[in-house]
Write a structure and sequence with these properties.
mainly alpha; 350 residues; 12 helices
Length: 350
């Protein structure tokens, strides 16, 4: 019998509630996204511009929050308490967006008088102003994954459970499945039944439940063990930033900057698909909100399934760059096939 078995059991029992908490966080985030896109349509008068703004601000905020907090993940004494505070702040700022958008109407009118003769300049101004409102809550959303990853890394240092990579993958998977639930219910159930304001309040309640649960989980952990783990294991992202690079000759000499550039191009293509697919579906369905919900639900389901499969088989992949290349090729070819399949949807519906 292993003397580490009780430690592993405690880690597993602490990990499951954490995954449920992050599921709630993902669901609330996508409810906000659909609600904000609906609100911005009333401001922009254009579904495509509203969705582009929400997607850009949402993903930009997630990236910014992950970058800022990821580099400092080893400096937080109790990640769960920090996460709880983040969830409370997200709820407050996300609800403030619904108040700030109508309050910006006079500013939009001024922008119309200044740049109304140039549609491109007007769209840039409206995009900039709307992004200023959406970036604060989305940046905090992006900070939640590095915070919880830091906690799981510290917990894995004192147990025999799986490493930080699989833990972060499990977090991402549960968060994405929560986002699927939020995207599916918001467009088809919450907005028609509750309206914009009450749907946002429900999402804020999910944030507060996640915050309270994380705080309770933090208090249930032995303080000595948490402090010991905090001193023993720094953040994975911090290690990536500070540690000297190690050569990986099995994959050949590939510049990390080039890999980041390729991955950024992949993300840009994915977001372009989201806007285009929403536009196509809105022409077919006649409802921009439901088209956006369908696109997000399908898109996020694919992300969650892909993350779950990749997390499970990650250690068995001997040539990750080759696998990544084949995945990107398959994504491009299947998206290209959609050009010929979308026009058939009306006939399928009939």
């Amino acid at each position: 019998m292993s003397y580490d078995a009780p430690e592993a059991s405690n880690a597993r029992t602490g990990r499951l509630p954490l995954l449920v908490i992050f599921f709630l966080s993902g669901a609330s985030g996508l409810i906000y996204e659909v609600v904000w896109s609906r609100s911005l349509v009333l401001v922009f008068g254009s579904t495509t511009h509203a969705i582009s703004t929400v997607l850009a601000a949402f993903m930009g905020g997630l990236a910014l929050g992950s970058y800022l907090v990821g580099r400092r993940g080893d400096r937080f004494g109790d990640p769960l308490k920090v996460y709880a505070l983040l969830e409370v702040a997200i709820a407050v700022l996300a609800l403030a967006v619904l108040v700030a958008l109508p309050a910006m109407v006079p500013v939009y009118r001024l922008a119309w008088h200044v740049a109304g003769a140039s549609p491109a300049a007007l769209n840039v101004l409206r995009f900039f102003l709307a992004s200023l409102i959406l970036l604060p809550p989305t940046t905090l959303m992006g900070a939640t994954l590095p915070i919880l990853s830091a906690y799981l890394e510290r917990a894995s240092a004192t147990s025999t459970t799986s490493g930080a990579g699989s833990s972060a993958g499990a977090l991402y998977t549960f968060n994405t499945f929560g986002a699927v639930a939020g995207a599916a219910t918001s467009g088809f159930l919450l907005l028609p039944a509750l309206g914009v304001t009450r749907a946002a309040l429900l999402a804020a309640a999910a944030n507060l439940i996640a915050a309270a649960s994380a705080m309770r989980l933090s208090r249930s952990l032995p303080a000595a063990r948490a402090a010991q783990a905090a001193q023993a294991v720094p953040s994975t992202l911090a290690i990536t930033q500070d540690a000297p690079a190690q050569s990986e000759p099995a994959e050949g000499a590939v510049s990390p900057a080039l890999l980041l550039l390729v991955f950024a191009a992949s993300g840009a293509g994915a977001l372009m698909f989201e806007v285009v697919w929403t536009r196509i579906l809105s022409l077919i369905l006649g409802s921009s909100t439901q088209a956006f919900s369908i696109m997000l639900t399908t898109f996020l389901t694919g992300l969650a399934l892909g993350s779950a499969v990749a997390t499970r088989w990650l250690k068995k992949i001997s040539r990750p760059l080759l696998v990544f290349t084949l995945i990107e090729l398959g994504a491009g070819l299947s998206a290209f096939a959609g050009i010929y399949l979308f026009p058939e949807l009306p006939y399928v519906f009939l």
